[in-house]
């Protein structure tokens, strides 16, 4: 559908030039454009319907040839190949139902067109699975409604009044279609329908949806400034998930996460799988290229790994990059939904915990390493280093710069376990005998408090020091247990990355216990930094 749109918009551009810009000059383009396009919309639809049979005959093979490499970019990993065996546009032409003209910054004009297409194309996909099964899959019952953006830029003083046209899908309102195996049942291979449908949707939406744009030169010239370019880096720490829906009949789900801004294979990140756990801890770092922070989203999908079978979606979430403050770490819990198109989802599918940092290009000086700008550091390391620079000093800048090294966030983490409140009663007498176990996950060092007998609101006021070798990649598990004569009963936990304490130096907070019916834990954390180097 996205490929058809390109052809239709190309035709439309030609018609628009003939109708709207035949007698225009740059100075009157915006004013007359509104009038002409509103009054000529019926004319455009009429002529598009007349020429559509010729478009079908002339463009179908071209679209098929052009579309296959795009489909390959979005081909799901469960398929060995995904190609067209037949492609025709059908007899029903798209119709344009609305138009508006938006003045640009003085160097261009933006036109937005709403298009509706309930087509009858003949599209058959030839797919092969990884196990060698070949199936012809028909794409039927296509329905599409969307708003397309055409940018005429730059404005020039020669016919037709602009140098190039950019077109893009600004808003997808509807995209419906069905898949059918010719002479068979697509449901016979579990997960196949979802994989093909997802690939088609990703290819249509991502290959042409804003900020992605196609550029059509009208006059000779350099239009590289109109191309889509990276504007920054998004760094993501996938911390954990909790209360995930169990998809397994025996045991628990084996969750992993897939993250992306654009669903291209080389830009999609996948976490490790945590077996048999509905509250997985990943603590993994990923970086993503950002091309338009004002419109792009980060998408997170959590799956249950089913081994040789297709993974089953547990839930998905997204976050607008426009909600991030450049250079500031944001800690978020995102609710997982069944479908991002349907935000009203009352079922609890779990939550996923992220730390995010957006660093626009050109702001590197704000996050520089105080020792040497040539060090290999992630954006998050640079922010942390810049914030901890005031806490310590190192006078050997020139000596350190002689060898390329990587800075490790090293120091001493001091944790005071102050008290707990409203803990659940575990013992038969309506009380508990709670104690706290603290674990530095990567270093695998542990400490524990004393046991407070017969209390649901214990007070410890005990302080523990941990030597942290790699603060950026380590995390703290604080678990509360009930002490019994013959063992211990789990009561709940708090999971903390070290990002906040490294940035702030010290903080005190009341944390709600995860995995408990009730209960809070009062902690005081303090960071005493000491940077060291390792050879890279």
Give the arrangement of secondary structure elements.
Blueprint (H helix, E strand, L loop, with lengths): L1 H19 L8 H45 L5 E10 L6 E9 L5 E9 L4 E8 L4 E22 L6 E20 L10 H17 L5 E4 L14 E11 L12 E6 L8 E2 L10 E10 L6 E8 L7 E9 L9 E6 L15 E10 L18 H10 L8 H4 L4 E4 L2 E11 L12 E7 L4 E4 L10 E10 L6 E10 L2 E11 L1 H6 L1 E7 L7 E10 L2 E4 L1
Antiparallel strand pairs: 1-4, 2-3, 3-5, 4-5, 5-6, 6-7, 8-11, 8-15, 9-10, 9-12, 12-13, 14-15, 16-25, 17-20, 17-24, 18-19, 18-21, 21-22, 23-24
Helix pairs in contact: 1-2
Structure description:
The structure is a single chain. It contains 6 helices and 25 strands. The chain is α+β, with helices and mostly antiparallel strands and 536 residues long. The strands form 6 sheets. Strands 1, 2, 3, 4, 5, 6 and 7 form a 7-stranded antiparallel sheet that branches. Helix 1 runs antiparallel to helix 2 (29-73). The chain is elongated. The chain starts with a helix and ends with a strand. 31% of the residues are buried. InterPro entries: C2_dom, C2_domain_sf, SMP_LBD, Synaptotagmin_plant, Synaptotagmin_SMP. It is found in: Membrane.
Radius of gyration: 29 Å
- State the end-to-end distance: 47 Å
User: How would you sum up the global shape?
Assistant: elongated
User: Total number of β-strand segments?
Assistant: 25
- Strand content is 35-45%
Alpha-beta content class? alpha+beta
| Main pleated sheet | 7 strands, antiparallel
Function: May be involved in membrane trafficking.
GO molecular function: lipid binding; metal ion binding
Protein name: Synaptotagmin-5
Pfam families: C2, SMP_LBD
